Amino acid sequence: MGSCSAEGEISKLAAGLGSDLLDGIVSGHTHQPIHHFISEIPVVQGEAYNQYFNIIYLTLDRRSRKVIPALTQIEGLIPICEKVFKGTNHCDVKRLAPGDSPAMVQASFHGESITPSTEVEAWLDPIRKSTEHFRNEVLGETILPLTHPRDRESPFANLIADVLREKGHADFALVNSGGIRTSLDAGPITYDGIFRALPFDNLLRVVELKGSDVKLLYRIATSGAHGAIGLSGLSLKVRALDLPAEKTDLDLNGTLDSWESNRLVEIRTAAGEVIDDDKRYRVATFDFLINGGDDLSWFMKRVREKDVNRSMSGYCRDLVSDHIRKQKKINTPDQPLMDPKHPRIEWVR
Questions:
Q1: What's the pTM value of the predicted model, to 2 decimals?
Q2: Which residues contact 262 (CB under 8 A, 6 or more apart)?
Q3: Which run of H or of E encompasses 312?
Q4: Looking at beta carbons, which pairs linking 303-310 to residues 24 or more positions away fall under 8 Å?
Q5: Domains by residue range for the chain, with CATH
Q6: Are 179 and 202 in contact (CB under 8 A)?
Q7: How far apart are the first and last CA of the chain?
Q8: What are phi and psi of 294, to 5 degrees?
Q9: 104, 222, 275, 337: which has the fewest Cβ within 10 Å?
Q10: DSSP-assigned beta bridge partners for residue 285
């Protein structure tokens, strides 16, 4: 659920710890704008992609050395822009009315103009120069754009899933949408581009599961709680994300969370074969998911440690980079990473 809902992590944290222990919460990860009080605790989160920030003003009683809750204030969302559209306080073109194209003017904060810090620029300059060679290395070329929509099948996610399956010698692969942070235009692919798309130090892991657990894993992954997924070696039919879905209390905690929605209509191998409930399969994925990320904690606690291969080294972005270097050209018209005629995910309405 969203961070502000009663079932959300932030709401549970605020209610569980209480204002006697916490003076404020600065959160992240869920991409939601939060700037209000939850259980009398000020909570802030600046949405996504470093577009905004918030401020919590806390007033301290010098004698008791405690915060005075009645004087606590929140300011935000505050856009992070060197220039903003005239007459607004933002630089987000998506928020403009159709046809509007106001001039850009210098942004200000509390009456002061926003300009780059010369001290920070001086500190960063030698770092940029020392990494320039690596960042600008051209790994290969994508003929079609490597787009990454988070609410439907993604060519970029499919590429990463294919690489993980190949490197992990696995039957299937699973990639969470949030692990990929941007798309890439058609043309040369640099290491900097791959790093921006895969900034997390995710490691390749392979888990061995019975077919019945493979079905359960992909049921949770396709619940819609975290958008669409990237996959390899499988063909799925999934109930559309904008439609309601039945829920089952899988963890038996008395609540029905969004990850317990069942949208998985059908699961087969890429060759069209039915998954055998008793057969054991190898699934390659990020260590983030193996460690319980994106609501997989309950599922992964059911998996035996001996069934998880944690011996593989190297960051997933480097595995993807090596693959692109080897292939030279990827996502070509004759070998697209997302084939509309043979989708890896078919959305059912």
A1: 0.79
A2: 219, 223, 245, 246, 247, 248
A3: none
A4: 303/207, 303/209, 303/213, 307/207, 307/208, 307/209, 308/205, 308/206, 308/207, 308/208, 309/168, 309/205, 309/206, 309/207, 309/208, 310/205
A5: 1-87 (no CATH), 138-348 (3.90.780.10)
A6: yes
A7: 23
A8: 50, 50
A9: 104
A10: 205
